[in-house]
Write a structure and sequence with these properties.
The chain is α+β, with helices and mostly antiparallel strands. It contains 16 helices and ten strands. It has a three-stranded antiparallel β-sheet with strand order 1-2-3, with helices on one face. The chain has a three-stranded antiparallel β-sheet with strand order 6-7-8. The protein has a two-stranded antiparallel ribbon with strand order 4-5. β6 and β7 (about 280-285) form a beta hairpin. α3 packs antiparallel against α4 (about 135-155) and α8 (about 245-260) packs across α13 (about 360-370). The termini are far apart.
Length: about 425
C-alpha cells in the first residue's frame, strides 16, 4: 500500500521539506516540495511542523492536503497506466501548488486552465474580432476562480476539466443558488466554465462527452430598474444641501441623457467635447468592447453643462450618493430587483423602494428605456453600444406583448395615413394582461 513521509534534511533555518512516496516495498520516490521551514520548528516525531504558532499550523494543514492530493493522483493515474516516476511526482506537487507544470504538459485542473486564460489574456482573440481580453472579462475569470475554489471546498475535491458534465452543472448551480447568487450570474459562470473547457480541449486536455450539453445561456432580464421621466424631473427639481449630492444629481441627469455605463460616464471631461461639420458632439470610447461612440449635444445637455462637467467621483461613492439623492427626491416606487445584503455579501431578490436598489448602471437602462419607442432602435443602440437588437430588447426587458402593441400602433398609423379607420381587436380574457 502506498504511503507518504515528509522530512527535512538539514539543521539550518531554511530547510527544504521533502516528500517521500513509497509505492511498494523497495520502490520509493523522493522530491523537494518547494517549501522551506526553520529546522527548529520541525517535529521528527510527527513528520510535520510543530504546532507552536499560527503559521506552522497553516503549513501543516497545507502539507496534509498535499499528501491527500498525491495519493489521490497516484490512484487515478495507476488505473490509467501512467508511469509513476520522479517527473510524475514533481508534476503532481506543482499542480497542487498551482505552479507552472513541468515537461511542457498542461495541467488538467480546472482552476489552472482558468489561470492560463488570464495569463494569456493580452494575446487572445476577443468577441469583437480583435486581440486582447477586456479588463472586465479578465475580472470575470478571476471571480470564476473564486467561485470554483469555493465549490471545491464544498465538495472536497479538486476539479479537473474532464469533470465538467451535466452533473457538475447541476451541482454548482444548486451550490451557487444556496449562496444567494442570481440566476443570471449562475448561468454566466457556467457558460464561462464551458468556455474554459473548450479552450483546454483545443490544447489537448481531455473533456467530458457531456460538455457539449452543458448550458449557460443568458437569462431574460425580468427585473428592469430605471428612472422614469417623472422621477428624473423630481430629481432635477430637488435642491440638496451638500455639494457632493448636487454633483451626483448632475451626473444622474447627464447619465440619463447619454446612456453610458457608470465608469464610462464618470470618466467624461471637457476633453470629450468635439465639433464636426458644425455639430457640437460628445465623443468617447467605451471600456467594454472598445467601441467608439459619438453623441450630439441636445439643448438639455447644453443647459446642464453650461457651467462645465460635474467633478469626478469614484463609482463606489457615486452609487452611494445616488441612492441618497434618490431617497431625498422621494423615488420610493416599490420595485422588484436585487439588493445587496452585507451580511451574506450577495444580492437578494425582493421588492424594495426604488432608491434602495438604484445604481450607476441603471442610468444606461434609463436612457434606453425612455427613448425606446420615440427613437429608432438602431439609433439608441449606437449610443448604448449594444451589438444586436435581441440583446438590446432583453436589456430593457421587452416582451412579446410589447411587440404586439407596437405592431397594433403601426397598423393604426398606416390606416390613418390612408384616411381609413382601424381599431385593434381587443379580446377580453382574464388570463391575458
Amino acid at each position: 500500500m502506498a504511503s507518504i513521509k515528509l522530512s527535512i534534511q538539514s539543521d539550518n533555518d531554511n530547510a527544504s521539506i521533502f516528500l517521500r512516496l513509497s509505492i511498494k516495498r523497495g520502490f520509493y520516490i523522493k522530491r523537494k516540495i518547494g517549501v522551506s521551514i526553520n529546522s527548529k520548528d520541525w517535529s521528527t516525531a510527527t513528520g510535520l511542523p510543530k504546532q507552536n504558532n499560527p503559521h506552522n499550523k497553516n503549513v501543516t494543514s497545507r502539507l496534509r492536503k498535499l499528501t491527500t492530493h498525491v495519493l489521490d493522483s497516484l490512484n487515478d493515474d495507476l488505473t490509467k497506466g501512467i508511469d509513476i516516476d520522479g517527473d510524475w511526482l514533481n508534476n503532481t506537487i506543482d499542480v497542487f501548488f498551482n505552479r507552472a507544470v513541468r515537461n511542457g504538459s498542461q495541467s488538467e485542473l480546472l482552476v489552472d486552465n482558468i489561470k492560463r486564460i488570464i495569463d494569456t489574456a493580452q494575446t487572445r482573440r476577443n468577441g469583437k474580432g480583435g486581440v486582447g481580453l477586456s479588463v472586465s472579462r479578465v475580472k470575470s475569470y478571476g471571480s470564476l476562480i473564486t467561485t470554483i475554489e469555493s465549490f471545491q471546498k464544498h465538495i472536497k475535491k479538486k476539479l479537473k476539466v474532464k469533470d465538467v458534465n451535466l452533473k457538475f452543472s447541476n451541482q454548482i448551480a444548486d451550490f451557487m443558488n444556496n449562496q444567494s447568487y442570481s440566476v443570471g450570474y449562475i448561468q454566466k459562470k457556467i457558460s464561462d466554465v464551458k468556455t474554459v473547457c473548450l479552450d483546454a480541449q483545443l490544447n489537448g486536455i481531455e473533456t467530458h462527452p457531456q460538455l457539449i450539453n452543458v448550458s449557460g445561456h443568458k437569462v431574460k432580464n425580468d427585473y428592469v430598474v430605471f428612472l422614469t421621466e417623472k422621477e428624473l424631473e423630481l430629481i432635477e427639481n430637488t435642491e440638496f444641501d451638500r455639494i457632493a449630492l448636487e454633483n451626483t444629481k448632475k451626473w444622474i441627469l447627464l447619465g440619463s441623457m447619454l446612456g453610458q455605463r457608470g465608469n464610462d460616464l464618470l470618466n467624461l471631461t471637457e476633453d470629450n467635447i468635439i465639433s464636426r461639420s458644425g455639430l457640437k458632439l460628445l465623443e468617447l470610447t467605451q471600456q467594454k468592447g472598445n467601441k467608439n461612440v459619438i453623441i450630439p449635444f441636445s439643448p438639455q445637455m447644453e443647459e446642464l453643462l453650461k457651467n462645465g462637467f460635474p467633478y469626478k467621483v469614484s463609482i463606489q461613492k457615486f452609487n452611494e450618493y445616488m441612492k441618497e439623492v434618490c431617497k431625498i427626491a422621494c423615488i420610493n416606487t416599490i420595485t422588484k430587483g436585487y439588493k445587496f445584503d452585507s451580511k451574506i455579501k450577495r444580492r437578494v431578490l425582493g421588492k424594495y423602494p426604488k432608491w434602495q436598489i438604484i445604481s450607476s448602471h441603471d442610468l444606461r437602462r434609463t436612457f434606453a428605456t425612455n427613448k425606446y419607442g420615440d427613437w429608432k432602435t438602431p439609433l439608441i443602440m449606437s449610443i448604448t453600444g449594444h451589438s444586436t437588437e435581441k440583446t438590446f430588447l432583453n436589456y430593457i426587458g421587452k416582451t412579446e406583448i410589447d411587440y404586439a402593441h407596437q405592431i397594433a400602433e403601426l397598423y393604426i398609423e398606416e390606416m390613418n395615413k390612408s384616411k381609413g379607420e382601424f381599431n385593434p381587436v381587443v379580446i377580453k380574457n382574464k388570463n391575458v394582461s
